[in-house]
Amino acid sequence: MIGALLAATQNADAPVLVAQNIAFGIIATLMIVSAVRVVTAANVVHAAAFLVVVLAGVAALFILLGAEFVAITQVLVYIGAIVVLFLFGIMLTRAPMEGTEAPSRDNWAMAGLSGFVLLVLLGYTLWDGFGRDKIPADLQPTSTGALSDAIFGQYLVPFEVVSLLLLAALVGAIVIARRD
Amino acid sequence: MFLNQFLMLAAALFCIGVYGVIARKNGVMVLMSIELILNAVNINLVAFSTVNGAISGQVFALFVIAVAAAEVGVGLAIVLAIFRNYKTVDLDQVDLMKG
Question: How much is the ipTM here?
């Protein structure tokens, strides 16, 4: 995949963005390594810490793509709220803090195989479909005003539905977790 | 930068998440793997939004973040209820409805 990307880069007629590509490489490597550690770590708290690295990497990718508001929301909601929720869940269920019991099921080999097959299929399809498509070189950050115009104009009804969904999930979570 | 860089990275994250959902025993860890999958989807949405110059992809990424927050809240409540009834979060031992 890397060789094919390099070959495509040499054929490119548009200027190559060196700094962005280096940043992407560093972020991507960090994210892949951390994601693998999330699903393989024996210690659940360590897995949550690696999940923070992955989520921060996704926020950095959003910045690279010019989506500033989505990146800030990612940091606020995911790293700020969801990871804390995970830590509370780990604390309340007293999940094994040591690597004493096996973290994986017996079917981890089949899981790895299905993941690998899925990766090969997806990779081939993406390469076949979007091999030459480029991110525009004169990328401008998306203005938050335009984003809010879209949310509160064209997508007002879905926005209200999402807020109702959040309320329903809040009530449902309290009902399910209540002690009685 | 190529669009495929982002799409391939998202595909790798998605597959790692699928592995985690199938292979992990701990219920909290399964929820974390689902978060990896949802983040892969978000990368795809924002990347296509940037390439096509349409803002809808970013709006939908925000919706996905909101739905993920709701999903984690309910999911952790369910894991908590399972722990209270079974004294474990090992999903292999929650087989009451197994035929």
Answer: 0.92
Nearest CA in chain A to B23: A108
Which amino acid makes up residue B23?
Answer: A
Do A105 and B92 count as a contact with CB atoms less than 8 A apart? yes
Q: What b-and-e string marks burial along A121-157, b requiring 16 or more CB atoms within 10 Å of the CB?
A: ebbeebbeebeeebbeeeeeebeeeebeebbeeebee
What are the chain A neighbours of B29 within 8 Å (beta carbons)?
39, 44, 47, 103
Domain CATH code at residue B60:
1.10.287.3510
Domain span at residue B20? 9-88
Judge whether residue A98 has pLDDT over 70. no
pTM, entire model:
0.88
Res A39: pLDDT: 92
Tell me the one-letter amino acid at A8: A
Residue B76: what residue type? L
Q: What is the DSSP string of A21-82?
A: HHHHHHHHHHHHHHHHHHHH-SSHHHHHHHHHHHHHHHHHHHHHTT-HHHHHHIIIIIIIII
